[in-house]
């Protein structure tokens, strides 16, 4: 922002000297001379000239001297000014404008006024830039006071200052325009540097965020509890209680190539996470089924994480503070799942002033506003997003003669209110939801099976209202309480078949953390869920007496059920640090399921030991635990499933090592083994539920070599080698699990070039998905239908290797608007740049003698625009 | 989502089943479709060899014995019974069984008198029995390949060429029909009054004459709407299907079209709905090929209780 321009005028000494000489010359008469005495005109007022805006716009940083020839009449008025030596950049015009305001005492000859012509110079010196800024923590944007800021300017001089209590700082000394280098250090913080270009007359604001010096670790019992741990929320501490936690920061999430800046899609680049099935956003973690992994938003479970097609998650990245991903062996605070945990933390609304953001790309459009609610102490955040590719995709499909027209659309919405009560407690209310709809209109019946014709519609929606209270009651005691309720709806129509479900989950969670002495922190909590539900399911009917199965128009079987689930749980954990650098966390969790009337007891233990403490730390880690997952209401339905089921169970074992190499580079290697027991097998007797006869295992090794974000670069190499097998009953052989993916390699990086440019790339190679080939079976001559026979074993073949390269480029302009910093960004995110074929499955002709791959998305460029204030 | 993509046919096009380009069994008609215990059942198969290269002529043959009351009425539950019957004849897997089968388009069997009493009791219907006769069409010789204990639904028979190489499903079809037996229910095969072309009745002997398509883009070829007329009397009550009030619904009747050349816009058209009755005429559009040919068109009419009919010999289509 160009503030008041520094006005600097230097009246040329030449002029003064020239006049002086002339005056002397004319005043002093040669001895014995009788010539006239001439006195030149002299300035009566000091007319200053403004440094021209044009020069500032042109980034002109040097000095400029404009020489004018002034004609002054006998009364001392300046009649004309001409530029003798033009300088451009608006200097000439500025000089003339200033000269117009000059008033002179007229020149005199022998005491009588006369007109005169003089040379007059204006020397312009560029107004000094101003440099101000703020220092804050990287994770939570909390102000850091007492940080040392050193600025190395373009002349080679150094200027230092210290940040104040609110983190702000400024350089009072005059700085020359040009390139500067800024160094910032603060206690217990990693130093950071920045480079910037200062323009004359402009005020430049630099916000510098410092990461914690320590890699986030469980809080040492002897450490100061006020220490800021990077991955936890601002209000209260939540000590990590798991073997492996992977955290992605907002800065990384927004620009990972191939994800369109979607936070939850970025998870798919981490070790232990398999590539999802086609067009879905399922999370497949360490060989578990997608339904085994739970997703929490600020402590409340949500039913789905991605909108249709898996292109976008239900919570926009702008609202996310961080994502904690636990691939296994997670804390007893989480339950009812055998896979992993994704814990999404929403950020607090900004409190300084009202901000706004709008973004548009090929997929959707979103808006957001946040800020303080006057002086009430409450801050708000409201956001909404709506897809719009249904508007352009459907006409394209129609024009290209697709057999069906697809019209998917989604929207999501969020409202957040937060108030901090003192330094140690806060209230937060969140209302958020998502709605997806998809319809397919097939104009012709499928020749093989007319029941596959007609309309197909699918609509899912959910909303949640959540209240959260956190209070650090004392230095040693913290309380966290969360209550949420909402609705989940599914409405699917598939020809004559349909599925309509409604559930109304009410959840409550209360946790108390108490430090006991120097070595122990106890965490106890309750985690309850009450869920009324209803469903109406119409499936293809079983064979009616006298009617051969198959053929069109079979009346579906219908099941209408309603009921409620009550799932209370309690847990307790001890974080024990018996000696320095060693931490062990035993815990137990007790769950009850009203549908099965079963209690599940789940002991778990995690340990971490810093073999070498301090910089270049080496940490050994391990854990084991029991993880239970209750059957779904469909599985326990008397018609569709089986009564008398018990929970599915998995036992996790995990060992690993973490190694720091530099401040930015570290590596983590994990080995895991999971044993599955008591798995509900579908299809016998009910179509959706069967006995707890299934079992299996999954094991593997995960590697993550990571370059943590600095001012220029972040990236990582992630590799998973794993195997997952199942058997439907003890008498059946083990075979590969349908979600098994042997190799998963991801290499990605993103580099900030400066001047608002960032470019990144991602390369992936993944083993092909498993599939079950189908061969020709018998022909049902009664209905005219060729039947297929699934090959044995199931999932016995693998699709070709998948590989893809994605790139992303961002350009951001920062400028001042309405006296505030504003940003405008453009980005292009190209998925599958080389248009590699991506076989996702097989389709067959009518008698299974021909097959062809069904390919995933081809090259997909997404261009987006974004404005922030 | 995967099914949706498959349905949209994104980028993948196979020849539809209405195109006859291989060995095919199109239908098996039982007379009557519902038989009383202890009565004979006459069977007729509609089979055609649509291969352009017929290294060996097509053989149509029936397994000499029908299968009765398999577990859960599942067709492949008959395979162990067939295997036992062959074992009783000393047949080993891999052996040519063509000579042990009953050749020809026609077959008959006797519905056993205890077919209903031997059938597993169901709680949701009247007592019934079911018979499954098996027929094969093979462009080679038929061998018994054995019943798989791992994959119970895998075909126990195969078709082999003269060199002993297994032929795929373009040269071999194993088919079965389901013939029910009730004490008090009857079922008749639907009746085909006639076919129409361009709204005009078709003489099944003279057939249809259409012009060859001269367009380079087949989408621009003229089409001939073909329809099948089935009288309302063919739509019988279906005592096994009840509406919400417990009243029996009627049969569903549909027609499957097949042709040895050209193309058909719809291979399957529903003619009668269980609740709505006769549906508005919805002909299939036949597009002639781009070269003159003598083709055959079939319209196989099914009802959902196993009743089947077709015009014997099909309808000749003269493309000129």
Can you offer a commentary on this structure?
The complex is a heterodimer of chains A (869) and B (320). Chain A has 869 residues and is mostly beta strands. In chain A, 5% of the residues lie in helices and 52% in strands. Chain A is elongated, with a radius of gyration of 36 Å. In chain A, 40% of the residues are buried. By secondary structure, chain B is mostly beta strands. Chain B folds into 2 domains: 2-181, no CATH class; 194-319, Immunoglobulin-like. Chain B contains 2 helices and 26 strands. Chain B has helices at 2-8, 79-88; strands at residues 23-31, 40-49, 59-62, 67-68, 102-103, 106-110, 128-132, 134-138, 141-144, 157-160, 172-176, 179-182, 194-197, 200-201, 208-210, 223-229, 237-242, 248-250, 253-259, 263-264, 268-273, 277-278, 284-287, 293-303, 308-310, 315-319. In chain B, strands 15, 19, 21, 22, 24, 25 and 26 form a 7-stranded mixed beta sheet that branches. The radius of gyration of chain B is 21 Å and the shape is globular. Chains A and B meet through β29, β48, β49, β53 and β54 of A and α1, β1, β11, β17 and β21 of B. β48 (774-780) of chain A pairs parallel with β11 (172-176) of chain B, so a sheet runs across the interface.
Compact overview of the structure:
Chain A contains 5 helices and 55 strands. Chain A is mainly beta and 869 residues long. Chain A is elongated and about 135 Å long.
Query: What percent strand of chain B?
Result: 35-45%
Q: What kind of sheet is the major sheet of chain B?
A: 7 strands, mixed
- pLDDT under 50 segments of chain A (min length 5)? 1-33, 215-239, 443-453, 551-555
Total E-strand runs of chain B: 26
Described by the principal axes of the CA atoms, the overall outline of chain A is elongated
Taking the sheet with the most strands of chain A, its summary is: 26 strands, antiparallel
Rg from alpha-carbon coordinates of chain B:
21 Å
Q: Using the alpha-carbon principal axes, give the shape of chain B.
A: globular
């Amino acid at each position: 922002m160009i503030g008041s321009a520094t006005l600097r005028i230097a009246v040329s000494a030449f002029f003064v000297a020239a006049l002086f000489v002339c005056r002397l010359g004319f005043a002093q008469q040669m001895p014995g001379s009788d010539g006239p005495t001439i006195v030149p005109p002299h300035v009566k007022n000091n007319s200053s000239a403004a440094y021209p805006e044009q020069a500032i716009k042109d980034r002109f940083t040097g000095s400029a001297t404009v020489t004018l020839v002034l004609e002054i009449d006998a009364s001392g008025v300046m009649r004309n000014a001409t530029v003798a030596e033009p300088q451009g950049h608006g200097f000439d015009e500025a000089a003339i404008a200033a000269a117009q305001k000059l008033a002179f005492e007229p020149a005199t000859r022998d005491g009588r006024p006369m007109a005169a012509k003089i040379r007059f110079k204006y020397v312009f010196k560029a107004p000094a830039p101003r440099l101000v800024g703020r220092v804050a923590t990287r994770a939570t944007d909390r102000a850091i006071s007492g940080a040392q800021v050193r600025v190395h300017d373009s002349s080679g001089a150094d200027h230092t200052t210290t940040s104040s209590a609110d983190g702000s700082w400024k350089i009072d000394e005059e700085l020359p325009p040009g390139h500067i280098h800024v160094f910032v250090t603060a206690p217990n913080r990693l130093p950071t540097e920045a480079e910037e270009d200062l323009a004359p007359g402009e005020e430049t604001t630099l916000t510098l965020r410092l990461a914690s010096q320590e890699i986030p670790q469980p809080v040492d019992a002897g450490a100061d509890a006020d220490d800021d741990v990077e991955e936890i929320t601002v209000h209260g501490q939540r000590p990590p209680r798991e073997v492996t936690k992977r955290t992605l920061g907002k800065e990384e999430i927004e620009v990972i190539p191939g994800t369109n800046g979607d936070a939850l899609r970025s998870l798919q680049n981490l070790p232990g996470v398999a590539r999802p099935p086609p067009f879905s956003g399922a999370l497949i973690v360490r060989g578990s089924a997608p339904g085994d992994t739970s997703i929490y938003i600020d402590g409340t479970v949500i039913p789905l994480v991605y909108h249709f097609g898996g292109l976008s998650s239900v919570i926009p990245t702008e609202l996310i503070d961080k994502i904690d991903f636990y691939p296994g062996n997670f804390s007893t605070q989480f339950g009812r799942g055998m896979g992993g945990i994704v814990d999404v933390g929403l950020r607090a609304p900004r409190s300084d002033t009202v901000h706004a953001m709008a973004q548009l790309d090929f997929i959707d459009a979103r808006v957001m506003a946040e800020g303080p609610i006057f002086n009430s102490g409450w801050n708000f955040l409201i956001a909404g997003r709506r897809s719009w590719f249904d508007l352009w995709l459907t006409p394209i499909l129609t024009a290209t003669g697709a057999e069906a027209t697809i019209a998917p659309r989604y929207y999501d919405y969020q409202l957040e209110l937060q108030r901090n009560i003192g330094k140690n407690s806060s209230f937060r209310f969140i209302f958020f939801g998502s709605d997806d709809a998809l319809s397919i209109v097939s104009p012709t019946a499928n020749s093989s099976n007319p029941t596959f014709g007609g309309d197909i519609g699918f609509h899912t929606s959910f909303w949640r209202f959540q209240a959260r209270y956190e209070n650090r009651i004392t230095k040693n005691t913290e309380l966290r309480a969360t209550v949420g309720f909402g609705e989940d709806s599914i409405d699917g129509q598939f020809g004559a078949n349909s599925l309509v479900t409604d559930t109304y989950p009410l959840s409550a969670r209360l946790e108390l953390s108490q430090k006991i002495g120097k070595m122990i922190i106890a965490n106890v909590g309750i985690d309850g869920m009450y869920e009324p539900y209803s469903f109406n399911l119409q499936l293809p009917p079983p064979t009616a007496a006298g009617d051969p199965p198959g053929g069109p128009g079979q009346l579906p079987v219908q099941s209408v059920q309603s009921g409620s689930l009550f799932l209370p749980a309690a847990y307790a954990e001890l974080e024990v640090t018996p000696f320095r650098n060693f931490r062990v966390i035993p815990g137990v969790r007790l769950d009850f399921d009203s549908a099965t009337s079963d209690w599940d007891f789940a002991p778990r233990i995690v340990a971490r030991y810093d073999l070498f403490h301090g910089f270049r730390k080496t940490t050994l880690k391990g854990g084991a635990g029991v993880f239970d997952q209750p059957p779904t209401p469909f599985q326990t339905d008397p018609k569709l499933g089986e009564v008398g089921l018990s929970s599915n169970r998995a036992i996790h074992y995990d060992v690993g090592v973490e190694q720091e190499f530099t401040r930015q580079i570290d590596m983590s290697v994990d080995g895991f083994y999971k044993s599955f027991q008591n798995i509900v097998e579908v299809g016998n007797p009910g179509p959706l539920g069967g006995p707890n006869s299934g079992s299996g295992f999954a094991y593997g090794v995960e590697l993550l070599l990571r370059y943590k974000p600095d001012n220029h670069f972040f990236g990582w190499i992630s590799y998973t080698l794993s195997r997952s097998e199942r058997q439907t009953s003890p008498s059946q052989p083990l075979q590969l699990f349908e979600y098994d993916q042997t190799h998963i390699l991801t290499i990605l990086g993103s580099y900030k070039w400066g001047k608002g440019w960032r470019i990144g790339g991602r390369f992936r190679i993944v083993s092909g998905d498993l599939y079950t080939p189908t061969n020709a079976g018998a022909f049902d001559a009664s209905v005219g239908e060729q039947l297929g026979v699934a090959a044995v074993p199931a999932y016995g073949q693998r699709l070709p290797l998948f590989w893809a390269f994605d790139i992303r480029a961002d350009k951001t302009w920062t400028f001042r608007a309405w006296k505030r910093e504003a940003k405008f960004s453009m980005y292009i995110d190209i998925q599958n740049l080389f248009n590699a074929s991506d076989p996702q499955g097989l389709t067959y002709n009518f008698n299974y003698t021909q097959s062809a791959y069904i390919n995933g998305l081809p090259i997909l460029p997404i261009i987006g625009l974004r404005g922030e204030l | 989502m995967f099914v949706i993509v498959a349905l949209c046919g994104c980028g993948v096009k196979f020849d539809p089943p209405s195109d006859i380009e291989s060995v095919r069994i199109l239908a098996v008609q039982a007379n009557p479709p519902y038989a009383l215990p202890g009565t004979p059942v006459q069977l007729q198969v509609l089979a055609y060899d649509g291969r352009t290269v017929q290294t060996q002529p097509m053989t149509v043959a029936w397994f000499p014995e029908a299968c009765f009351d398999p577990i859960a009425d599942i067709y492949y539950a008959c395979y162990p019974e067939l295997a036992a019957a062959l074992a009783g004849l000393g047949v080993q897997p891999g052996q040519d069984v063509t000579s042990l089968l009953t050749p020809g388009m026609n077959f008959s069997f006797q519905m056993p008198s205890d077919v209903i009493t031997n059938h597993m009791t169901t709680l949701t219907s009247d007592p019934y029995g079911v018979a499954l006769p098996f027929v094969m069409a093979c462009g080679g010789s038929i061998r018994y390949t054995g019943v798989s204990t791992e994959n119970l639904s895998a075909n126990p028979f195969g078709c082999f060429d003269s060199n002993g190489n297994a032929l795929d499903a373009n040269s071999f079809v194993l088919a079965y029909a389901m013939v029910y037996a009730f004490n008090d229910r009857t079922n008749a095969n639907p009746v085909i009054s006639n076919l129409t072309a361009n709204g005009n009745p078709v003489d099944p002997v003279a057939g249809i004459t259409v012009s060859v398509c001269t367009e380079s883009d087949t989408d621009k070829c003229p089409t001939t709407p073909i329809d099948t007329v089935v009288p309302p009397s063919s739509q019988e009550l279906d005592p096994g299907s009840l509406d919400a009030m417990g009243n029996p619904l009627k049969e569903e009747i549909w027609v499957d079209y097949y042709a040895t050349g050209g193309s058909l816009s719809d291979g399957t058209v529903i003619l009668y709905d269980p609740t709505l009755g006769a549906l508005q005429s919805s002909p299939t559009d036949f597009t002639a090929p781009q070269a003159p040919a003598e083709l055959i068109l079939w319209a196989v009419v099914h009802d959902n209780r196993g009743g089947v009919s077709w015009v014997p010999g099909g309808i000749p289509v003269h493309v000129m």
